[in-house]
Hints:
By secondary structure, this protein is of the alpha+beta class. 29% of the residues lie in helices and 15% in strands.
Amino acid sequence: xxxxxxxxxxxxxxxxxxSIEELKARRVDKSASSVDVDETEQAEGFELPGAxxxxxxxxxxxxxxxADEFTCTECYLVHHRSxxxxxxxxxxxxxxxxx
Length: 99
């Protein structure tokens, strides 16, 4: 947005002359312009131009759970033992889920 620095500026007297109705109308216009966009819907239709990834395969190296790790019974993520919040009856819960 371009700014005209040569234009006369409003003084404090000019600013106080704005009516309440004008201010309310401006506030309503600003809130009406915001749009609630679902990012996941927007990302689903996004494709890179000329990129055909249909023949590609992903290869991921899976490492088994280590001796110093546990699986949280709430979020089912593998955490280090330092993240263990409680171990009641064999149900291990991480600090994040316990909070």
